[in-house]
Design brief:
The complex is a heterodimer of chains A (363) and B (111).
Chain A lengths: L27 H9 L1 H4 L6 H7 L12 E5 L25 H13 L4 E5 L9 H10 L4 E6 L2 H5 L6 H7 L3 E5 L5 H8 L3 H14 L11 E5 L10 H16 L6 E3 L6 H9 L3 H10 L3 H4 L7 E4 L5 E2 L2 H5 L16 H5 L26
Parallel strand pairs in A: 1-2, 1-7, 2-3, 3-4, 4-5, 5-6
Antiparallel strand pairs in A: 7-8
Chain B lengths: L16 H4 L1 H14 L7 H14 L3 H13 L4 H20 L1 H12 L2
Protein name (chain B): 4-carboxymuconolactone decarboxylase
Organism (chain B): Flagellimonas hymeniacidonis
GO molecular function (chain B): peroxiredoxin activity
Chain lengths: 363, 111
């Protein structure tokens, strides 16, 4: 007799990056054409430039540099559907030790108080640990590594990472799209939830994320679909309650980050026919109070090959800083800080609602 | 003119009702915004109530809006479906409880 129960869905094979699929969006100019065209070109929605000009913020200018964000490579063990980096196991762009040495020179002399390592999975760079050890010597106040959690459980060679992070007093920031298995695995791949839980428990066991602990463990939440994140504090409360009750997991803060309409998320928005609605939602949620604090005003983003960008998103759109200084080899903080920030319609993602940055809300 | 009564894109234009009656429109949206703020009930709980009512009043705009709102608030699909059932149960109960009226009338008319 045939079962009346719905058939179990087949396991989804791991996706490839847009780049490996030769998707048209792998060409950054195509993405910029989409962001500048359509509903913006025909006047249905206002350009970001015009919105910030209304409040005297055009051209957008940097404030004091606070954060150096270094992307050590696009290789990742996961292929998340929303990834703005288009990261994955098939991406071979990896920062060399030589470029890392140039970064270290900058780290030693910078006025920034925060160093933020990201990727891909930064741990997959073969020189990652060497780089962390060297960078930690510079005594920078807040040293962040953005770890996707599953990497810690992905392979034996990464099992010691929680101890390694602790040794160098690294501030761990990790992605966790939801406190339920279904939603997490849908966005990030089968099995990601269980591995992430295990990794969080291991970090907790070393003191990470515990109340009052100096070992900082923060989580990043970003929506698994074509909608904006809700209130950061309310979500933090829900995450804390659920993760504690179900798994005894503790963490410090939750950062709610808006998905920006670029790379794989843009591909998803277009394929699912959500692009226009999403852009409307972003523009509708535009909050002038967030404009003054968007992260490009206090951050410099450095790519795996040493180019400088206003933010990680502009890096992925290959929009290099509008400055005489464009590369880490010629880094000069004063010259760099005297620049206009490059903007396009993706920037609405950082000014929606309470604003969004790699450090969560800004308004 | 559109050739159907409901167009999903009209939801975005909801705010425009203020253009034809500024005072009433503004009063309505102020009230509406206030209702859904955190209070004795959390904004999350109110979102689920709104989703259930959206189904009961069969408002396609509201269903779209409060499904999205629920996602934004991290509400799971299981919670959303339970809320819809709560609305559906009240609605069917409201029909069924009139059965008592039918029974009363039947009894009164019967010898």
């Amino acid at each position: 007799m045939e079962s009346i129960l719905p058939k179990k869905k087949a396991k989804k094979p791991m996706q490839k990056s847009l780049k490996a699929r030769d998707n048209e969006l792998a060409v950054t100019n195509r993405q910029l054409e989409i962001l500048d065209g359509g509903i913006f070109a025909d006047g249905e929605l206002p350009y970001f430039k015009d919105k910030i000009a209304e409040i005297g913020h055009f051209p957008l200018r940097p404030k004091k540099l606070e954060i150096l964000q270094i992307n050590v490579g696009y290789m990742c063990n996961q292929v998340c559907e929303h990834c703005h980096v288009d990261a994955g196991p098939d991406r071979k762009e990896i920062m060399t030790r030589e470029t890392m040495k140039q970064c270290l020179e900058v780290i030693k002399n910078t006025g920034a108080h925060t160093l933020d390592l990201t990727g891909g999975a930064p741990e997959m760079n073969p020189d990652f640990e060497w780089f962390v050890e060297e960078a930690a010597k510079a005594g920078i106040k807040d040293f962040i590594v953005r770890s996707n959690l599953t990497i810690i459980r992905a392979n034996k060679k990464y099992h010691h990472l929680p101890d390694f992070f602790k040794k160098h007093n690294v501030h761990v920031i990790s992605s966790m799209p939801h406190y339920t298995r279904g939603k997490t695995d849908k966005q990030r791949g089968d099995g990601v939830f269980d591995k992430s839980i295990k990794a969080l428990q291991e970090l907790n066991a070393r003191g990470y994320g515990m109340p009052g602990s100096d070992l900082r463990l923060d989580l990043v939440y970003n929506p698994s679909g074509a909608y904006l994140p809700g209130d950061q504090m309310a979500l933090e409360k829900d995450f804390k309650k659920a993760l504690d009750e179900d798994f005894g997991i503790q963490f410090h803060n939750l950062f709610a980050i808006t998905n920006l309409p670029i790379a794989r998320f843009l591909d998803y928005l277009i394929a699912s026919e959500n692009y226009e609605d999403y852009m409307y939602a972003l523009v509708e949620a535009y909050n002038p109070a967030a404009v003054g604090n968007v992260m490009c005003t206090n951050t410099i983003s450095i790519s795996w090959d040493g180019w400088l960008y206003d933010c990680d998103f502009n890096q992925m759109l290959d929009l290099k800083v509008a400055s005489k200084v464009k590369h880490i080899s010629e880094y000069n903080e004063d010259v760099l800080n005297d620049r206009n920030i490059i903007i396009s319609q993706h920037c609405y993602g950082c000014t929606a609602g309470a604003g969004s940055s790699c450090q969560g809300t800004v308004a | 003119m559109a050739n159907s009564y409901y167009d999903p894109a009209d939801l975005r234009k909801f705010g425009k009702i203020t253009e034809w009656s500024e005072e009433l429109g503004t009063k309505f949206f102020d009230y509406y915004g206030k209702v859904f703020e955190e209070g004795a009930l959390s904004a999350r709980e109110k979102s689920l109530i709104a989703l259930a009512v959206s189904h009961v009043v069969k408002c396609p705009y509201c269903i779209d809006a409060y499904t999205k709102d629920g996602l934004q608030k991290g509400i799971t699909k299981e919670e959303m479906m339970e809320a819809v059932h709560a609305g559906a149960a009240i609605e069917s109960g409201a029909t069924l409880v009139h059965g008592v009226q039918m029974m009363n009338k039947y009894n009164k008319l019967s010898m």
